[in-house]
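Write out this protein's structure.
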Amino acid sequence: MKIKNIFLTLLVSGLTFFCLSANLSAEVLLDPMTSGDDDYIALLEGQGESAYAFDFFTTSMLWTVIAAALVFLMHLGFATLECGLTQSKNTVNILFKNTFIISMGILTYAVIGFNTHYPCGEWSLIANWLSFGSPIDLGMGDVPGNDDFSYGGVGLAMTAYGDFIFQAMFAATGATIVSGSVAERVKLLPFMIFVTLLVGIAYPVIGSWHWGGGWLSEAGFYDFAGSSVVHAFGGFAALACVMILGPRAGKYVDGKIKPIPGHSMPLAAIGVFLLFLGWFGFNGGSVLSANPGPLGLVFTTTALAGVAGCLAAMTFSWIFLKKPDISMALNGILAGLVGITAGADSMGPWAAVIVGAIAGVIVVLSIIFFDSIKIDDPVGAISVHGVCGIWGTVAVGIFGGASLSTQIIGTLSVSVAAFIFAYVVFSIVKAIMGVRVTPEEEAEGLDLAEHGQSAYSITS
């Protein structure tokens, strides 16, 4: 009884202290005489005629960095999905690749990618691609637009750093798509070299054709958040690599397709739901402000397309394959999300449902087709990102008000360019150092062969 009384006394005392502390903290934060508020008021007054919009600017900047964090979380989703859909003996290798990709991607984008992607005027080799870090400058000097409207005006409600960090989170996505397609048989170091070149050169140059104000932008091509610029780019780069690398050992035997099941569908499902969550930042952050009108629409169309893709893939694969397949249902979610990414801000809810549902059917047929021609893609990334990326971009010309012919030309241009770059560079890397592990290493598993580690330690 005494112990109970002592516990209750401590609990009441603790709650009282917590409430008093919270109240004191609130008073400090809300005191207009604190130096932090003085700085903010001075900053607000310094905006001149644009001061009326500064609270919106601040809110938009906050949403931008939250969206960037959500996109960062997607890389955990990619890693988890890839691990789940492959064999347990390659898990460490997959985690290592994905850890490298996001780290390399952000730094490479800071050094050469951001300027190339968004040249802010006439593009040149010296001024953009070989320019180290400007305008973000990596802390080496004053950055214009760091705390006011001078970076992009009132219309672009973010700072220079905010713009950079959001776009940097996109940069490594294309390489992550490739990682899933070449899983379980690619040599680690050649892969690392290849994806560094893909992210450092191909992604920002090809992306600048549209998002950097290049020829596709001038032609009227529209890709809101990257069905082509990010997803089809990565999907067709992956196709080129898989064609060079060849299928996994034992995948196609005596003209028959032999399933190589993944070791953890729970991991795959967790990965997809992490990706679904992150996609709200991927598409929602691409509004580039906290404007409630387009932001609400984008969240709605994104959600509707994802679930429509799931239900369509689930139903169609069940009918076509005579069984309910969870991997097809999960890929249907991703297919719907990829499909809506190009037009999430320009389509209505019902159009989003149609686009997502068609993407869900397409991904099932595409996965079956690539298997039939011996293109071994362990996670279905070529179909999800490449094929459905093209569909989503074309759909903007059907449901989103853009020119259909321009959308077709634009998405094919991006896809073909990514394929050619990847095929040439990966072929060169193959000629110099080889890109595939030995049959013995593949049989043993890349965790032990490449890393000398095991993902799962089972002790009695």
